[in-house]
């Protein structure tokens, strides 16, 4: 059986929460929201989980009671840089899930489906996407005429035609570990923000000839990609979680 690991990005401060507490350890139904992400990864078969910490990393570690590894991102230089900090953990065997610690609604069931599609199709990367009525602000999944994955375009960079696309990037992925490690070495921060973007690895992996695909969520399942950036969004996530059937 192929080895499956998971990397969870949890280094950010979360200034829009208006709190000194690191965002990912704000509680959702009594547990730190990063706990639900860790649990979903393990439910999907991840044998090892690495949490990337940064802002008040000691508080984040103290709040997490799951068995995980940790890597510190000392400078906030983008999502690509965060994952690159875990390059030794990722290694070159099997596959690696990459998720954000502020998405408590993601489930092991959905991640299992993502892993299964990725392995069945022998993809270099498989993106978890969602079909939204209002896609404002999200990066768009652009497909070719045959319906195959072509690229991800950020909202601010998208043309009017691309913005009309309703399929969005969730920011959750599964990578072939060897391809991810190789592409992280090739990342550039030659952009307006001077940051290293994880999405750039997808274009690099596609360029070397590996297949890239996306698994779109629809309907109520789209709630699973919700990121929590404000206290109001945290309350909304709690309400959704309360109404789920066990």
From TrEMBL:
It holds the Pfam family NTP_transferase. CDD domains: GT2_GlmU_N_bac. GO terms for molecular function: transferase activity. It catalyses: N-acetyl-alpha-D-glucosamine 1-phosphate + UTP + H(+) = UDP-N-acetyl-alpha-D-glucosamine + diphosphate; alpha-D-glucosamine 1-phosphate + acetyl-CoA = N-acetyl-alpha-D-glucosamine 1-phosphate + CoA + H(+). It comes from the Bacteria. Residues 5-203 form the Nucleotidyl transferase domain. Keywords: Acyltransferase, Nucleotidyltransferase, Transferase. Catalyzes the last two sequential reactions in the de novo biosynthetic pathway for UDP-N-acetylglucosamine (UDP-GlcNAc). The C-terminal domain catalyzes the transfer of acetyl group from acetyl coenzyme A to glucosamine-1-phosphate (GlcN-1-P) to produce N-acetylglucosamine-1-phosphate (GlcNAc-1-P), which is converted into UDP-GlcNAc by the transfer of uridine 5-monophosphate (from uridine 5-triphosphate), a reaction catalyzed by the N-terminal domain. This is NTP transferase domain-containing protein. It comes from Coprococcus hominis.
């Amino acid at each position: 059986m192929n080895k499956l690991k998971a990397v969870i990005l949890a280094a950010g401060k979360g200034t829009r929460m208006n709190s000194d507490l690191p965002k990912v350890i704000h509680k959702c139904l009594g547990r730190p929201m990063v706990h639900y992400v860790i649990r979903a990864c393990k439910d999907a078969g991840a044998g090892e989980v690495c949490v990337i910490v940064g802002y008040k990393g000691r508080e984040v570690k103290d709040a997490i009671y799951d068995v995980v590894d940790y890597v510190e991102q000392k400078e906030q230089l983008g999502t690509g840089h965060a994952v690159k900090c875990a390059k030794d953990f990722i290694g070159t065997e099997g596959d690696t899930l990459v998720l954000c610690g502020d998405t408590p609604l993601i489930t092991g069931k959905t991640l299992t489906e993502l892993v299964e599609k990725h392995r069945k199709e022998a993809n270099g990367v498989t993106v978890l996407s969602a079909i939204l009525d209002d896609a404002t602000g999200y990066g768009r999944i652009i497909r070719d005429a045959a319906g195959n994955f072509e690229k991800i375009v950020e909202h601010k960079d998208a043309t009017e035609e691309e913005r009309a696309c309703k399929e969005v990037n969730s920011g959750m992925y599964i990578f072939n570990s060897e391809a991810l490690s190789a592409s992280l070495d090739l990342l550039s921060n030659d952009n307006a923000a001077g940051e290293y973007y994880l999405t750039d690895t997808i274009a690099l992996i596609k360029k070397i000839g590996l297949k890239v695909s996306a698994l779109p969520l629809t309907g109520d399942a789209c709630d699973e990609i919700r990121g929590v950036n404000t206290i109001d969004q945290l309350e909304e996530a709690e309400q959704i979680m309360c109404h789920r059937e066990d």
